[in-house]
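worker-03 picked up job from queue 'complexes'. Input manifest follows; two sequence lines, order preserved.
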Amino acid sequence: MKKYQALFTIRFSSGLQYRAAALGGIATQFAWGFMELLAFLAFYKANPGAYPMEFSQTVSYIWLQQAFLALFMTWFYEQDIFETITSGAVAYELVRPIDLYNRWFCHSAANRLARAVLRCFPILLVAFIVPEPLRMSLPPDLGQFGLFMISVPLSLGVVVAFTMLVYISVFFTLSPIGVRIVAALLADFLAGGIVPLPFFPDVVRGVVEILPFAAMQNMPLRIYSGHISGAAAVRGLFLQAFWFVILVVLGKLWMKLALRRAVVQGG
Amino acid sequence: MIELKGISKSFRVAKREAGLKEAVKALFARQHETVHALQDVSFTIGDGEMVGYIGPNGAGKSTTIKIMCGILHPDSGGCVINGRVPWRDRVAHVRDIGVVFGQRSQLWWDVPVADSFALLKDIYKVSDADYRRSLSELTELLDLKELLKTPARSLSLGQRMRCELAASLIHDPKILFLDEPTIGLDAVSKIAVRQFIKKLNQERGTTVILTTHDMQDIEALTERIILIGKGRILLDGSLQELKRRSASQKRITFEYNGPEPSLPAGTKVIERGPHRLVIELEKEWLSVSEAIAQISAQVDVVDISVTGMSAEEMVAQLYREYAL
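worker-03 finished. Artifact:
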């Protein structure tokens, strides 16, 4: 365990170095968050009753999404992992007494956390002081907040386990671009990254809500505002745990296959 | 103890002729070609040995090393290192080995070298006491004191290679694989690296397997060489043997005044010019001093130099012999 801790620490601390990138990210996320909220506000003003979420719930959803973007974004990948595979430097990873899947999992989770820590506080601070109706509200009660706190790490786990599959695919395709773009866009859409899942048409929603993508940001962001609560929330956590386990097992098996057939590139 | 028996490995490589037409054709029917990287490779290396593994580019050196490190699975054949099959028992196996790939880096680019070392310490679960001892020893032997606080990206190639060596030895491995450790280094750094490897082998008794294109590395370090070409082992013997085989081929260069001398029996002309003659001794019964005596009896010799065959030439000759 200590080795993973060490790997986590070195990645986390090097992720904290990039202050300018964090500032840029914060600015982008403010702009994006406001824009989205203003668009939603216009819709809600036209017909407040026509939407599946209350406006205040949508507001919390979007602010949290922007604050914790680094944890949940499905389109963010570790460039060094891709390079390690395509350049053949993976040879050095394989002469270490450590499981490669766990090592990369740790690496990406650490980087996402480091980025989130740098970005979330200023965004949350502003989200709580902007004037109504754009102000973010507190969760309905402490229990709900507790569920939210369990759901966040589970989401992170599902997202990282998903990106691991994209990394492993590079052993076979040698170019990350194709798989990465398709996977990233599709996953972002189906996870509720563009429009929250409750806004999807009913027919589609029935299917989408049980996919692994629904176990990503969809859960914690809706649990926070109480849109999913009580037994439904607990079921949600189980869905997340289920997909987390499935994706990890799938990834590990696939990794094993990839390494058996691996060709280390470049001599 | 390293034992390889009948290891074979082939890769499938996509191939096509140059040109747009062929590229379009390859969209529909991809042509593959099987490259036999290793064919029936067998050898045994004992504990504490230092072995030079040589061969031209693409001969299969790195593939063999990667199989011995547990990175690649061979198609057939067996390999047992210290009682383990590397690729089947990878995690346990790699704890006992250290590897330096001369063309890659194992140091974290953005952080000071010492941080990379500390991380390796945790990955290999080295105890604090062992780590301190190992690090101070390596720091002294490789002169790393000034380098430890520097991020890897700001090191020169020679400095980096010294750090790479240290990084691969923090966990005190029993076997060290060096894949072209002196590639691109200047003369001073090369000598430092060689001295260190030699010391390591003598003092810690580490088994060292070295691949290189630099024959001076081989001359300075290894007793035994294994020559591989086109995926097969061609020669496995001592460097001394190889040297003895070609030692009789001494070359003598004369600068002289006077008419062209006649050649002593048992010699061959390599080069003949006005006032210059280069001969090679072909027969063992003719000694260098005898040949010199015979020539200088005929002409007024101004300058003489005698050269043996360098290891470089010996290997080039071997490659030619085996048509590699």
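worker-03 released lock.
Chain A touches chain B at residues 2-3, 5-7, 10, 14, 17, 87-89, 91-92, 94-99, 260, 262-264, 266-267 (CB under 8 Å).
Chain A has one domain: 2-261.
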